[in-house]
Amino acid sequence: MRAHFCCAAAILVLASANASAQTSVIEERDNPVVVTRERLELTPAQRTTIYRTVTRERVISAPPEVDVRVGARVPRTVELREIPPTVIEEVPVVRRYRTMIVNNEVVLVDPITSEVVEIIHQ
């Protein structure tokens, strides 16, 4: 019980320290891991750059039944692709994410948590 209280307290401290941060708790047996990351805010131009570059490559689309809501976790079986270097040059903030394409949308996924962090439409 005390461990759960300490974990909850840590989450509250992290959340209140930076209101724009997103905090996820990943349960791994008896050791929860707290992961905090900044919200991903992309300009329309950055979104267009990412969409055009990623969709231009010959990539296999993920199954359409994959849940593509921001915050949803994608199955570990889904193949995630690295962000192309040309995109990283123009939009360095996306360097740590991976991509997949579902229903003609580019989906950015945090490879640590498997959570969808952004969905980019055409």
Task: Describe the 3D structure.
The protein has 122 residues and is α+β, with helices and mostly antiparallel strands. It folds into two domains: 2-38, no CATH class; 44-120, inner membrane protein cigr (Nuclear Transport Factor 2, Chain: A), CATH 3.10.450. The protein has three helices and six strands. The strands form two sheets. It has a four-stranded antiparallel sheet with strand order 3-4-5-6, with helices on one face. It has a two-stranded antiparallel ribbon with strand order 1-2. Strand 4 and strand 5 (105-110) form a beta hairpin. The protein is globular, with a radius of gyration of 16 Å. 15% of the residues are buried. Residues 4-24 have low confidence and may be disordered.
CATH architecture of the largest domain: Roll
Q: How far apart lie the N and C ends? A: 47 Å
Given the structure, what is the number of helices?
3
Approximate helicity band = 25-40%
The assigned structural class equals alpha+beta
Can you give keywords for this protein?
alpha+beta; Nuclear Transport Factor 2, Chain: A; 2 domains; two-stranded antiparallel sheet
Helix and strand arrangement:
Layout: H1 2-17, E1 21-28, E2 31-38, H2 44-56, E3 81-82, H3 85-90, E4 98-102, E5 105-110, E6 115-120
Antiparallel strand pairs: 1-2, 3-4, 4-5, 5-6
